Amino acid sequence: MDELIDILTPEGKPTGKTALKSEAHQKGLYHATVHVWFYTNDNKILLQKRASVKKVFPNHWDVSVAGHISAGEKIETAAIREVKEEIGITIKDSDLTKIGLRKDEIVHPNGILDNEFKHLFLCKLTKEISELRMEVGEVDDLQLFDITILKDTTKHGSFMVPNFRNYYGFIYDQLKTKSK
């Protein structure tokens, strides 16, 4: 979906301008996204298999839920909306634990210039996988994996989306801290 998003400076500050997501990706305009990592009490994480029709990293396993923050939308509201859209469950602000903000600048082989500020959250998975509903065109599969997959670099880039700037190591460390 080509949605209207707020444009940021390279430092992550609002510019007061908006653009369509497609234009931001074509021109390399900075924008904000949310990543929500669902975890269980038994050291598992929920990964989604990106749909085969996705423009970047089709058929790769990725963060539980991710998406763009719409123009004027609050960060947590975007996270809650994306969770509902992509995996079909309802969560509240209080279910989200913010663990960081990450700046990534990625040039994809297909020409997409993805300059984003990712707002990162952890959220405990309180539903069975069978209760989740995958968004057609976004998600082709959902599975629980042991969190050690985040440390298995043989999976990164072939089975999973590449591990840009040790992103998975950061998430692993946050999950281990959360479980203590």
How would you describe this protein?
- The structure is a single chain.
- This protein has 3 helices and 9 strands.
- The chain has helices at 21-27, 75-87, 167-178, and strands at residues 4-8, 14-20, 31-39, 44-50, 61-62, 65-68, 96-107, 113-124, 139-146.
- The strands form 3 sheets. A 4-stranded mixed sheet has the order 6-3-8-7, with helices on both faces.
- The longest helix has 13 residues, at 75-87.
Order of helices and strands: EEHEEEEHEEEH
How would the global form be characterised?
globular
Q: Calculate the mean pLDDT score and round it.
A: 95
Query: Biggest β-sheet, characterized?
Result: 4 strands, mixed
**Uncertain runs with pLDDT below 50, 5 residues or more?**
none
Rg from alpha-carbon coordinates: 16 Å
Number of strands: 9
Number of helices: 3
Report the portion of residues in β strands: 35-45%
Helix content: 10-25%
Secondary structure category: alpha+beta
Q: Strands of the largest sheet, in order across it?
A: 6-3-8-7
End-to-end Cα distance: 39 Å
List the helices and strands and how they pair.
Elements (H helix, E strand, L loop, with lengths): L3 E5 L5 E7 H7 L3 E9 L4 E7 L10 E2 L2 E4 L6 H13 L8 E12 L5 E12 L14 E8 L20 H12 L2
Parallel strand pairs: 3-8
Antiparallel strand pairs: 1-2, 3-6, 4-5, 4-9, 7-8
Short description:
The protein is of the alpha+beta class and 180 residues long.
Kindly list the characteristics that best describe this protein.
alpha+beta, four-stranded mixed beta sheet, 3 helices, 180 residues, globular
